[in-house]
Amino acid sequence: MTLATVTAVSDAEIAAIRAQHPGVFDTPGKIVRRWAPWAVAVLYVFWSLWYFDIARFFETSDRVLSLLRAFVVWEDMANWQYANIYRGIAETLAMAFLGTLLGTIGALFVGFMAARNIVTFAPLRQVVRRFLDILRGIDQLVWGLVFVRAVGLGPLAGVLAIFVSDVGTLSKLYSEAIENIDRKQVEGVKSTGAGPLQVIRYGYIPQVLPVFISQSLYFLESNTRSATILGIVGAGGIGMIIIERFRASLYDQVAFVVLNVLILIFAIDWLSKRVRGWAIGAQER
């Protein structure tokens, strides 16, 4: 039995190995490149905490605890005007539903005009897409402020804001789904002598309809939350009730309203799941 021996490696041999395999060994430049992003990120976090004066949060901890207690301790519940609260929730749901429905109908037409395999005339397609960029680039809250000024306070402004915003976003999503369809089914419909509208009806729609339904249902859920915020800027619904309760320091009622909105979102999510399953023909488990 022999024992392995380790011979000393000279500095010259190490230098030669470094020269032959430079990527194996760390160099000062590699170390700096590896750790510099982390150092910059840490410094940026500390600078942000200092810039936004995060220490004020600890200085006002008593006020924060008092506010949280006001949210969870419900008092005088017999006089909360439940009819107004649930009327506002129903108005918010109706606003979200009507805005999403109109946005979906608009996107069905505009989405096909923005699809490369439907509109082959590039200048027209680019005009449609830039128009959608404008609709999508302006936030829904800004549209709400615009329509509140245009048509006055109330849910109509919220419906129009959701409609315009959804047309811009859903049309883009729809056009991408249309561009990714299976061309064989379209060619099969064309081979029967079908016209352009028949090709769209029997070649495109069956393939993209489940995607359209799924995306629109998600937007209905999202727009229910957005309609709450739109109400705060004057577009009606439960948002106006929330801001009124906040101004009156009725934080327990605010918590009650928010809890009901969450329950509504859960219900919409459950219903959307069942509708999506029906659309794609999935078996319920």
From TrEMBL:
Keywords: Membrane, Transmembrane, Transmembrane helix, Transport. The chain crosses the membrane at residues 35-52, 94-119, 140-164, 226-243, 250-268. SUPFAM superfamilies: MetI-like (SSF161098). GO terms for molecular function: ABC-type phosphonate transporter activity. PROSITE patterns: ABC_TM1. It comes from Rhodophyticola porphyridii. Belongs to the binding-protein-dependent transport system permease family. This is Phosphonate ABC transporter, permease protein PhnE. One of its GO terms (cellular component) is plasma membrane. Coiled coil: none annotated. It is found in: Cell membrane.
